[in-house]
Amino acid sequence: MITKTPKNILLADDSIFFRTKLSTILLEAGHKVRVSANGKEVIKEIQADPTGLDLLILDLHMPELDGFGVLDWIEANNFVGKFNILVITAAYELTSIVDRLKRAGVLGVMTKAYTAEQVVYRVNRLLFNEKTHGQKSDRAPVSIPVDFSISDKKYSGLLLNISPTGLFLHTIMDLAPKTGLTLVFSLYGYDRVFNLKAEVVWSTPSSGPGKLFTGVGVKFSSITNEEKAVISEFVAREQQVLIAFEEQS
């Protein structure tokens, strides 16, 4: 969840609450973040350092100059394609504005209801150009309660992303590589309980100010083909929801 190659992100939103929440997520994910409260501030930031920006996260509804005004300015001043643009909005508006957004270089739309895991997934998908290189991730960002046990001791945590071969377990426990676990969880939309053996492969630091993405990456050590198929189907469904804007022509 935490990148080793930080990117420069400009976050524009008039809500102090949302700016703080989203910037905290992005900082903990390892990126460099600066913020703007309205469209005029965004334009000043771009003019000051147009080559030092990897991603603009832009709210459509802001005072003084809204996100649409910023996009018009970007298009009029030949900045389309100079940096990635991800639009954030309180309501999905794709049907009526998708063409306008794409002309201005917008590569994705994200609602403000997304979880921290979904935010990082969308941002990293754009910043590390996964789609351009023809790669399809086999993971889906989620936030699902999970019970896990080590020997005869039981604990609880959160499943933050999952693939047919493993998952990221959010926990503040220090678990060494090769630690054996038994994981018990359900996937929303499926009427079944998974009870899987797994092994810790890597971990993130449990010390420091950030706790959003503390945990361990685990690999399933016992999983049936049927269980893999269900997880693959779940991952594909979740990804389709997240990248719906990108799939539109």
Enumerate how many helices there are, as a single number: 7
Number of domains: 2
**CATH topology of the largest domain, which one?**
Rossmann fold
Total number of strands: 11
Helix vs. strand class: alpha/beta
Distance between the termini: 30 Å
Fourth CATH level, the homologous superfamily of the largest domain: Response regulator
Encode the helix/strand succession as letters: EHEHEHEHEHEEEEEEHH
Q: Main β-sheet: number of strands, strand sense, barrel status?
A: 6 strands, antiparallel, barrel
Query: Gyration radius, to the nearest Å?
Result: 20 Å
Question: Stretches where pLDDT falls below 50 for ≥5 residues?
Answer: 131-135
As laid out across the biggest beta sheet, the strand order is 6-7-8-11-10-9
Specify the CATH architecture of the largest domain.
3-Layer(aba) Sandwich
CATH domain class name of the largest domain: Alpha Beta
Q: What does this molecule look like?
A:
The protein has 249 residues and is an alpha/beta fold. The chain folds into two domains: 8-135, Response regulator (Rossmann fold, 3-Layer(aba) Sandwich); 140-237, Thrombin, subunit H. The chain is 31% helix and 31% strand. It has seven helices and eleven strands. Strands 6-7-8-11-10-9 form a six-stranded antiparallel barrel. The chain has a five-stranded parallel sheet with strand order 2-1-3-4-5. Helix 1 links the parallel strand 1 (8-12) and strand 2 (32-36). Helix 2 (39-48) runs parallel beside helix 3. The radius of gyration is 20 Å and the shape is elongated. The two termini are 30 Å apart. The model is unreliable at 131-135 (pLDDT under 50).
